[in-house]
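Today's session is about reading a structure prediction critically. Students often jump straight to the picture, but the first step is always the sequence itself: look for stretches that repeat, for charged clusters, for runs of hydrophobic residues. Only then move on to the predicted structure, which in these notes is written as discrete structure tokens rather than atom positions. Here is the chain we will use throughout the hour.
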Amino acid sequence: MTEDPFDAWRRALEIDMKDAQRRGDPFTAESNERVLRSHGGMPNGPTPSPPGEQARSPTSAAPAETANRDQTPTSDPRLLVAAEWAVRRARPDSIGKCATYVREAFGLAGITVHVLPTKPGEGRLYGPQYESAGFVAVAQGVVQTRDSTADGYSPEVGDVAIFQGNAAHGAGHVELYTQSGWVSDYKQYHFVPWPKNFAGVSYKIYRLSRSKPSS
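Below is the predicted structure for this chain, in token form.
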């Protein structure tokens, strides 16, 4: 019998939390435990007590990281699963596979985003693929600074941002908003992934429609 993906996610978080405690990473351990507590605890027994006095609170995180955090609850638990998979699989630096990593994170959560039949690595082209999966555009704009987004936009876990390319970044970019900020194939510390040559790039942000569940 295939394990339910939500149970598999919780089990993976439990393992990662214990590993974080062993390697002396109290912030990761505390973060994973907080998520587990908010979704019914761990599948293999009671949730342990907090990892200790050395655990850092969210307010003690680096400014850029704190600015990326958002506690907005999501109505679809699959989005939390996708976000956690994205964080767990994120690499220290980009390997040029943003479209693949974000799409696969949703796939692991049971949300199918079909790969492009041609140019599968062109993140800028994935808007229609996410729309077909049940996502709708909730914001759009033109990049001004690395952390500026459209006026009135408040990120929610599971949001997807798609950037169009320019001469310097021809393939564009895809990223997913998680409990830890924006993530693609690596952990980002800014909304805009590129350190330079990004002014004037347009973007659109998508969110899974509450009225059209994705299969």
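Discussion point for the tutorial: The longest strand covers residues 135-142.
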